[in-house]
Amino acid sequence: MAMTGRVVVFIGPSLSRDAAAHHAPDAVFLPPISRGGLERLLDAPPAAVGIVDGEFYQRLAISPKEILRLLDARIPVFGSSSMGALRAVELEPCGMIGVGVIFEQFRSGALDADDEVAMTFCPETLRPTSEPLVNMRMALGTACASSILSEAEAATLLDLMRDLYFPERTTGRLMKEAFQHLGPGRAAALRAWWPHAPDAKASDAIALLQKIMAGVTSDSSKTPFSDNASSRNEDLRSR
What is the reported pTM? Predict the structure, then answer.
């Protein structure tokens, strides 16, 4: 895929702006997308758009129809990690490009609840103030593979976190539940290992940035677009 011009990415809190800039130093980074946030891009179309994070708790979420307008304008749109992954699953038949493990999990049906990726964050700094369930799920799975927890222990903790309202899902709450349900020894082992746990959302955001930037070229004669672009889903258009 060959692309020219600026790349616009809606990101934070899945990955910090500094970390994102390390992987895509020339990209334009904007806060999490919300309803109406794509319209202004059509005035000066970018080479590509990446959607990692989006608002839905604070404001109306971006609709599939808004993304379709960019795809119709032959602007490649990539999605990963959070809102981007959810919309990419819906719009893959229309040309949106999904990236990462979380996207693949939703596409396969292994994950089906939107609140898996839900989290709260500080609107000024975009730093997360809760932990997404999907990160906990994948981290607990890795803890099992690393013999830090048994499968039963990991399942217990995951069930407890799933039952919470998403703003209440924090690492501190997870460790408190581990202490109460697994005992101080097992909880201490998990706490010591947790800084090494994978961050699925951040990893997928990095994968998106790398995929977009790998396609950037100075060859302005090439106009990129997904091979699926000609396939349009009329049901999605009616939303």
Answer: 0.89
